[in-house]
Amino acid sequence: MSAPEIVLTGLRKRYGATLALDGMSFTVRPGVVTGFVGPNGAGKSTTMRVVLGLDAVDEGTALVGGKPYRSLRCPLNHVGALLDAAALHPSRTGRNHLLWLAYSQGLAARRVDQVIEQVGLTSAARRKAGGYSLGMRQRLGIAAALLGDPPIVMLDEPFNGMDPDGIIWMRGFLRSLAAQGRAVLVSSHLMSEVQDTADHLVVVGRGKAIADAGVNDLIAATSSGRVALRTTAGPHAMAVLAHAGATVVATGSDTITVSGLPADRIVTLLNRSVVPFSEVSAHRATLEDVYLELTRDAVEFRAATPTEVTR
Amino acid sequence: MRPALHAEWTKLRTVAGPGWLMLGMIAATVALSAAAASVVTCAADGCGGDPTKLSLVGVVLGQAPAAVLGVLVISGEYGSGMIHTTLTAVPHRVTAFAAKAITLTGVVAAAATIAVLGSLLAGRLILSHHGFTAAPGRPALSLTLRATTGSILYLTLIGLLSLGIAAVVRNSATSIGVILGLLYLLPLLAQAIGDPHWQRRLEQFAPMSAGLTVQATTDLGSLPLSPWAGLGVTAGWAAAALVAGGLLIRTRDA
């Protein structure tokens, strides 16, 4: 097997009238956690189903380790995936669920007990999976993904339903998988879940990758040229700055983000119009900002945004 | 193929449902056969009838649990979404489907053997108390053997037909409705039709009435089809359903 990478090239997939994937292309590299983020319905799950050969694409190729998934023998030794943690038979125990999966790959029952311990499910392993909390099902799904000790791990919304302890565990766990040299792809519709975990981000919207870059690069690109302003006279300040040609967004009860004007010019303008303010600083974007900026046009269903005044 | 079979067998034995369904099949087959045997009596002018067929009449009821198992083996996974896990573990779809079919065949055939032999034994014991011991009432051994193996094969084929239908339909409730309708409604429809030509046609074509001709050991001339040809019709139904299910599993998105 060549390098443990997922390479997607120009994936297009139509379900009836819906274009689910519209030229999705990106690469998931070994040794890093790649966050796969985008609004619901942007094509994250469809992409993962295509990688696993569950759905066929109309155009494009999806290769794992240089081969299409459906050509792999004992595929769980190449790719471990968690798509839907609820996809279980409720009256089968967690251990037995892993057992049939292990047997399907020619693995021994010993391996099942190893992964159960690895995800911290030992005490519940012999209980029926139907009684598991969503967090426990996620752990069971992760155990299933790890069965074949695969060099590629792909998890769809693994943070869903996890309690805070579970989220912290999951972050450390994903980082350790990448540190072992595995290629790790983790999807989420919440940027905050992946911001401390991912090294690389693929942001998707309307069926294609709209950003594919390192986390730090993305933050720097979005932050450039923005100024954060703290003032109690918000509407007045916004009117003055918008009149001078800036794009102004109220980001809190007394905070405004200004773009299109340098900080010294903003101070001069506010002083001239006698607008009180307490702080002017270079704005450092959070991943959340990056995400909102990138997906602004890609969100299909969106509530009204905070007040935005453009000249 | 062997790992896929091992996986499917493990799935079947690690939940209670399949075991109960097979027990239900055995109980229903033997109970109905015994009940039927215990209500017939020999008339003064000879016993007549077909005691072997009578002893195996429970198959008519026992086929329902076999059909339900055949459906649940695959549509249960579509219902829960577990089919995705199955097909990521065994991405070669025909192999995954064949593993299900082979495992189901083994399980249903084993339980059907117990059910059919149990019915035959119960029938013999009860009928002998009713005077069916005379030589004219005892068919040739070869005919009894045909009825016995034919009934076991019939139950197995019904399981496979159900698996094929469920692979096409995917939904458990709909699949069970389709298969039970096919089994029980078609013969009822045949009874309702006045025209004897069409009635015979329907009996030759319906999977149950055609297949169960294999149980006949007397009066073979009155059958709509010869016994093995009748079972062949059921086998044709099962084969068609499996091919359709296999093709769709291969080509459809999971």
UniProtKB/TrEMBL annotation, chain B:
Keywords: Membrane, Transmembrane, Transmembrane helix. The chain crosses the membrane at residues 54-74, 101-127, 147-169, 176-194, 228-249. This is ABC transporter permease. It comes from Actinoplanes palleronii.
